[in-house]
Design brief:
This protein is an alpha+beta fold. The protein contains 8 helices and 7 strands; from the N terminus they run αααααβββαααββββ.
Length: 249
């Protein structure tokens, strides 16, 4: 049976793309298609190279895991939180290989349908509940990652709508205020046009946050009108998010 190199590369590209997107969803992260595409392209090229005369040794276990790890770095980055997604991706790839080997006579459709099934499992079955759910946010040209926290009950006292809370560094970049002004929001509200104060409560503590309404906040690709509060400290220190949002946003 003849093997067409271009078809083989395309098959591996599509399968790897589904696995990368499924991995992100399983871990509760946004899809990040821009990073998944080059990683999947590497997987497609690798799959084609494995059948070329003289370099078929690349199909060995060592090289296979090495390429999968490199794809994970491209797709998820080198931060500490990316390690978990990288391990998930390798496990999903191994699971796909086991399913494909366990089915006989499937060929192209065996691979593609197996990958689609795993991706569907991540998208529909888990819905990010295995890990924290991270959401992409674009605010006045600033790209942030927010943690969706269903226990976050901070709302706008005027409208009752939930509030997006961002880190002090994001507040400084957006408003041009200092860390001291964020810690003393009464000073900050006099400096920032359209800003106001909202109360917030934590265990044993009550205070005020500087806040401002934005008309076009992009949350997971959807434009919303949202009140944004600026925390006096960094949010998610050492973790992959710089903002907090409630479950209704």
């Amino acid at each position: 049976m003849p093997v067409y190199l271009d078809v083989l590369v395309l098959i591996n590209f599509l399968v790897d793309l589904l696995l990368l997107l499924g991995t992100n969803r399983l871990a509760g992260h946004p899809p990040d298609i821009k990073r998944a595409l080059p990683a999947a392209a590497l997987g497609g090229i690798y799959g084609g190279a494995c059948v070329l005369p003289g370099i078929r040794f690349l199909s060995g276990t060592f090289w296979r895991i090495t390429v999968l790890a490199l794809m994970a770095v491209i797709a998820f980055g080198c931060r500490r939180d990316a390690v978990r997604r990288g391990i998930l991706f390798i496990l999903l790839s191994m699971a796909l290989g086991g399913v494909a080997m366990g089915m006989t006579g499937g060929g192209f459709w065996t691979l593609v349908l197996s990958a689609a099934a795993i991706c569907a499992m991540c998208l529909l079955g888990f819905r990010g509940k295995v890990g924290a759910e991270y959401v992409s946010v674009e605010l006045a040209g600033l790209h942030l990652t927010a943690l969706r926290d269903t226990g976050n009950s901070l709302t706008d006292p005027i409208t009752g709508q939930q509030v997006l809370v961002v880190s002090a560094s994001a507040g400084a970049a957006l408003l041009g205020v200092s860390a001291e002004e964020l810690r003393d929001p009464v000073r900050g509200v006099e400096k920032v046009a359209g800003a106001r104060l909202i109360p917030y409560h934590t265990v044993g503590n009550s205070a005020l946050l500087l806040a401002k309404r934005y008309e076009n906040v992009i949350i997971s690709g959807k434009s919303v009108r949202c009140l944004v509060a600026f925390a006096p400290e960094e949010i998610g220190q050492g973790k992959p998010y710089e903002a907090l949002m409630g479950g209704a946003l």
